[in-house]
Amino acid sequence: MKILFKISDLLIGKVLLWGCLASALIVFLGGLLFLIHHGGETHLNPALLQPEKPISFSFYAFLKGILALEAKTWIMLGIGILLFTQLVRVLLTIGYFIETKETIHAWTSFCVLVLLIFSISAGA
């Protein structure tokens, strides 16, 4: 039981650590790309501050933006990795609680997972 706890604790910790570091690095690179493309502008472009009209998500357009080094797309990728990291953490926690037969904690974690998925999809 203690070995399982240590393994699960280390795994969840590593997922959080590497997910957050990868997300931070990608968002930082997106910020650098933004400065490279817009850092030399002497006047503030008001279009950059206006929210864009909602568009339908296309994986092809997203991949095209990543390959074209578009700053907004890279920042979106970093935020997406951060959200995915939290989903993986909750899934690993549910697996741990199921393995240790702690049903109340597993159901609580499952409710957290449902809320996470709902909040992510509602924000889209």
Q: In terms of structural class, how would the helical and strand content be classed? A: mainly alpha
Whole-angstrom Rg:
19 Å
One letter per element, helices H and strands E, the order comes to: HHHHH
Major sheet attributes: none
| Overall body shape | elongated
Summarize model confidence as the mean pLDDT. Answer: 86
Q: Please, how many domains?
A: 1
- Beta-strand share of residues: under 5%
Total beta-strand segments: 0
Number of helices: 5
Written overview of the protein:
The model has no long low-confidence stretch (mean pLDDT 86). The protein is mostly helical and 124 residues long. The N and C termini lie far apart (40 Å). It has one domain (2-37, 56-122). The radius of gyration is 19 Å and the shape is elongated. It has helices at residues 2-38, 46-49, 59-67, 71-99, 103-122.
Features:
mainly alpha, elongated, 124 residues, 80% helix, 5 helices
